Amino acid sequence: VNDWSRPEAWENIRGDVATSTTLPPAAYTDSDYFFQERAAIFGGGWCGIAMVDDVSQGRVVVREIADTSVIVTRNNQGDLRCYRNSCSHRGTELVEDDGEIDNVLRCPYHRWTFDLDGTLISTPLFDTESIEDFDPNVFGLQEIRVGAFAGVIWASLNPDVPDLVDWFGDLGNRLAGYGLERYEVRRSVTVNVQADWKLLTENFQEYYHLAWVHPELAKVSKVDDHYRFQGPGRYCGQTTTPISAGDNDEWTTLQNGSGLSSSDAESGRHIALFPNVMLTLLPNHACTFLLEPIGPGESREHISWSSPHEPSPDDLDKLVDFWVLVNDQDIDICQKAQRGIERGRFKGGRLSPRFEEPLHRFYNMLADRFEGIDRCPKGDLD
Ligand code: FES
Ligand SMILES: [Fe+2]
């Protein structure tokens, strides 16, 4: 059993990108690595678990973080709340499926009842007088840190990581002009992928593969029009400027958001928010991927399309069809990568500094979490 919290485990990716290797192949194939990663990355810091639009007031959703079942809802002030999905009486699962709630959370077993801030407010027939030292105040729900960023709900099982805004550094300011809080999710889909979640985000972070994997996309998004989009913060990103219309106006049909800066109005932003969210932002819509690890070499993509203005059904279909075409190409190549790494017994490779520097940045953020280092990557100079 390899201990991935040791600095020696990561020494080959710690130098400059020009000297760095790819991640150790075990990171994509080994079940022992998978469980350590689940604890260190998904249990050890913020991760994206739902879209903000999934949790309107009066709704509760059930999600998993690092094999822990949690529920997310809003209190009476509309603030997000997240709790472990377990009753404080004898541990029963509180909520089985996403659904509506009526101002309280009730355990199905003996009807202990909690308000939306997690306070225990009712214990039917429990007769607290006959128990010694029973203080209902310490039997509230176990709260988990939760917040919203870039249209996504993030939670952290680790109480010691920086606040969500600080986690992403300057990204909040960079995205402020889009007014993402005014975007609404118009369609969502979930896809199973036979590839590790890291291969999906690494693939998203580089456009080196553009011409060969995406001939259709290469018409609207050209290799030479890409620039880095990385300040100090836990994310990797690039910008495409300008965005071309392509053969069928796939990316440009929807109506732009209002009040965009001239740069935002002519750019596509492709941002991998650490660890598990991929966000493409165009002046008229956003496409968000939440990556859920299932096992070594297996993951799930929860994809949502959102926009500031309501699109016509035809325009939305056309947009989603184009995205699905491109994304299927990405999934196909990532599954090939997974198979080659796993079944071809890959020994590890090297990165192109021009195209694959974001991957190196991602590897180092990953290694930092394993080693317990709270460090925000610096911004690019270019
Ligand atoms: S286990 Fe929840 S009320 Fe008894
Ligand atoms: Fe791609």
TrEMBL record:
The record's annotation in PROSITE patterns points to:
RIESKE (PS51296)
Question: Gene3D superfamilies, alphabetically?
Answer: Naphthalene 1,2-dioxygenase Alpha Subunit, Chain A, domain 1, Rieske [2Fe-2S] iron-sulphur domain
Q: What is this protein called?
A: Rieske domain-containing protein
Q: Which GO terms describe its molecular function?
A: 2 iron, 2 sulfur cluster binding; iron ion binding; oxidoreductase activity
Cite the entry's keywords alphabetically. 2Fe-2S, Iron, Iron-sulfur, Metal-binding, Oxidoreductase
The cofactor(s) it depends on are: Fe cation
In its UniProt entry, the species of origin is given as: marine metagenome
Every copy of the Rieske domain together lies at: 46-155
